[in-house]
Amino acid sequence: MAPARVLVVDDSATMRGLISAVLNSDPDVNVVGQASDAMEARAAIKQLNPDVVTLDIEMPNMSGLEFLEKIMKLRPMPVIMVSSLTQRGADATIAALEIGAFDCIGKPAPGDARPFQELIEKVKAAAKSNYRYEYLRKPQAQTIAPANVNVAVEYRVGRKIVAIGSSTGGVEALIEVLKKFPVNCPPTVITQHMPSTFTKSFADRLNRLCAPQVQEATDGARLEIGRIYLAPGGERHMAVVNAHAPVVRLLDKAPVNGHRPSVDVLFDSVAEVAGRNAVGVILTGMGRDGATGLLKMRHGGARTVGQNEKTCVVYGMPRVAFELGAVETQLPLNAIGEEILKLTAARKEGSD
Question: Is residue 51 annotated as part of the catalytic site, yes or no?
């Protein structure tokens, strides 16, 4: 396979040079051009036809967010956002991911090369991904429909816990799933691979879009009906403990599968605490995090769901889980929310 051809867009010459040098250090990546603003980037895209664009959020004349919207309308392609680790940068990055950016990295602090190393893997994944631009750019994907609070009239919540894992493409995927949830949804815990600065903004965004209450998880938070808990990014793992009165625990442990928080850590804990009284869901993402944990959930009697290849931004985590036998039911993204509600509803006789 030919090296991934990349256009680097950033108003800082220093940052352009750093990103280009890091990407060119990998034989499977080739930086074919650089641009300092949206006008230069537009011309470069037409001339060079890159496979992937890295795009700074904050640029003069036209912001990265505005330029991304134009790219997705006129020439959809994988775009990786490079964002400052500020509240403003985080809010803009979440908006970019919702619009259709492939993924994001935070600009590194001095001496921190990890985001750049992550960028290499994300660029390579973007270049060979199954990214469904035509699907994602349909009008219904542009405008987020209000949450259906009326579904609560028909839905009677049972006693199950829902655990969801996602990575690249997870912002759009989680919005699509959770907007189907009623205000009285089952207690739901989510690990989404995302830098620590961004998860609070994402939780706030989900809370505005969804009928249940969505929050960035805190240590000791009790799992309650009508609440969704998003693992804080970057620093600790999220687990569920105490079978009789489940609560969130944030754990200071080493990364698992290269991630902290790790989906496997969450799924393992839910398997131990809830057993058959759980539903595990694995959505789009690179790598294999969550696959073995989902298998443990299924072996413990939980119902398990995986996103299908056609609707994944990256069919990595769901593919590995499916091949391991961890996925009981594989579905397109737009059917997963309803499936979760079906699996967690109380039976007519009043039991699960």
Answer: no
pLDDT tens per residue, range 6-57: 999 999 999 999 999 999 999 999 999 999 999 999 999 999 999 999 999 9
Which residues, listed in sequence order, are joined to residue 238 by a DSSP beta bridge? 250
The active-site residue out of 193, 237, 264, 269 is 193
Active site residue 289: yes
Sign of CA dihedral 243, 185, 283, 232: negative
Q: Is the pTM of this model over 0.70?
A: yes
- Indicate the pairing of strand 161-166 with strand 188-192: parallel
Selected catalytic residue, list 20, 129, 167, 201: 167
The tokens for 57 are 């959020």
With both helix axes pointing from N to C terminus, report the angle between 170-178 and 333-344 in degrees, rounded to the nearest 10.
50
Tell me, yes or no, if 219 is annotated catalytic.
no
10, 91, 103, 289: the catalytic one is 289
Domains in the chain, CATH or no CATH each? 4-128 (3.40.50.2300), 142-344 (3.40.50.180)
pLDDT at 124: 94
To the nearest 10°, report the CA torsion of 49, 51, 57, 60: -20
Pick from 109-118, 166-175, 316-325: least confident? 109-118
